[in-house]
Amino acid sequence: MNRIKPWTRGAMLAVVLSFCFTAMTVAQVGNNRGVLNPNRAGEEDLLALPHLDATLVKGIMDQRPFLSMMDLHAFLSQSLNEEQWTELYDTLFVPINLNTASEQEILLITGVGPRMRHEFEEYRPYVALAQFRREIGKYVDEDEVARLEQYVFVPINLNTASDEAILSIPGVGNRMLHEFKEYRPYDNMARFRREIGKYVSDEEVARLERYLTLE
Fold first, then answer.
1. What is the largest CA-CA distance in the chain?
2. Domain 95-154 grouped into CATH 1.10.150
3. 34-94: which CATH topology?
4. How does pLDDT run across 112-124, given as a tens digit for each residue?
């Protein structure tokens, strides 16, 4: 019987590095289970949400894209009380950057209080969404981790991100995926703005840029 040769140190290192690379390049926007992105949702979908009437929906559609959850909150809190917007944010949210979101933004996530907000911040910087799942999974069960990840993202590296990671950005399809990759490597974000600005508005470029990094 042939014996399996023990792995060399180099082979083991190659496997570890391969695993780490894969973990770093998979989708970095949380899997969505029903939370609408106000920058992408249609009028009918928005009207179906609690406490949104035709006037508020028109305001959302006229003012988007919202470049942060605080921008959306500033608009809606003029018309909705705390009980109302708390219920609404269970199903409508602008994803927040796990590495830069303010305390107030994190606390806008339904069900997140000061203790969980602390845990969100404790593990910064996040390099992958898998890290968020692992660390927050120390405190809540898998279902709750899956619910929370709908509201967050980890920026992806514009020059090295996989197709899957780029396509996880809300509103990015195959055409825009092609344009993102067409101009690699990017030396700076100014070039990204210039090149992608050939295809979409400045506001849309700014929305897309939230999900990207060159670090």
1. 76
2. yes
3. DNA polymerase; domain 1 (1.10.150)
4. 999 999 999 999 9
pTM, to two decimals: 0.85
Q: pLDDT tens, 55-65? A: 999 999 999 99
Neighbours of 154 (CB within 10 A): 23
Q: What is the DSSP letter of 32?
A: P
Q: Do 49 and 88 form a contact (C-beta atoms < 8 A)?
A: yes
- The alpha carbon of residue 94 and the mean position of all alpha carbons in its chain are separated, in whole angstroms, by 8
Are 106 and 124 in contact by the 8 Å Cβ rule? The answer is no
Q: What sign does the CA torsion over 13, 18, 24, 28 have?
A: negative
The position carrying tokens 């910064």 is: 124
Ranges of each domain in the chain: 34-94, 95-154, 156-213
Q: How many beta carbons lie within 10 A of that of residue 161, not counting itself?
A: 26
* Calpha distance 72→75 (Å, rounded): 5
Torsion over CA: 203, 210, 71, 96 (sign): positive
